[in-house]
Design goal:
The chain is α+β, with helices and mostly antiparallel strands and about 140 residues long. Helix content is about 30%, strand content about 20%.
Length: about 140
């Protein structure tokens, strides 16, 4: 699939088989919201990883009508895993039940290692998770 636009570090638009644009939500990651620390880095990395296209394995549509997909680079790299390893996203435990046990543990380990090494968003002691930021913004409060 050919990617065209990137909203943030976990959502992008792509052209599927030369047809209509599809909004894709990358499964297994939750990247910083716009304005949060590292959100631009996460968006730039996702853009880089999908620049030449991506392989999608979509399995559901979310409440925003985005296609939730396991996304791989054209050479087979797991984009969610790469984002977690580089400290550019969180593994959203809320959806862990959608993953096989082995997969879940691998994602958790990738996040944990990035955190231990202070990579990306983990360079600060207590970064605010994107779901916390969204909750604050819904209440018209600011997040960091």
């Amino acid at each position: 699939e050919h990617t065209r636009a990137h909203h943030d570090g976990d959502t992008f638009v792509c052209e599927v088989d030369g047809a209509a644009d599809v909004v894709v939500r990358v499964a297994n990651v939750d990247a910083p919201e716009a304005g949060q620390a590292h959100w631009r880095a996460a968006r730039a990395r996702l853009r880089e990883l999908t620049r030449d296209g991506a392989m999608l394995d979509c399995y559901k549509t979310d409440r925003y009508a985005r296609h939730v997909c396991h996304v791989r680079t054209l050479d087979g790299g797991d984009i969610a895993m790469l984002m977690l390893q580089e400290g550019l996203a969180w593994y959203p435990e809320r959806y862990a039940g959608e993953d096989a046990v082995q997969q879940r543990e691998a994602y958790r380990q990738a996040q944990s290692q990035a955190q231990e090494r202070g990579r990306g968003l983990w360079e600060v002691p207590e970064p605010m998770a994107p779901w916390q930021c969204r909750r604050l913004r819904e209440q018209r409060e600011k997040c960091k």
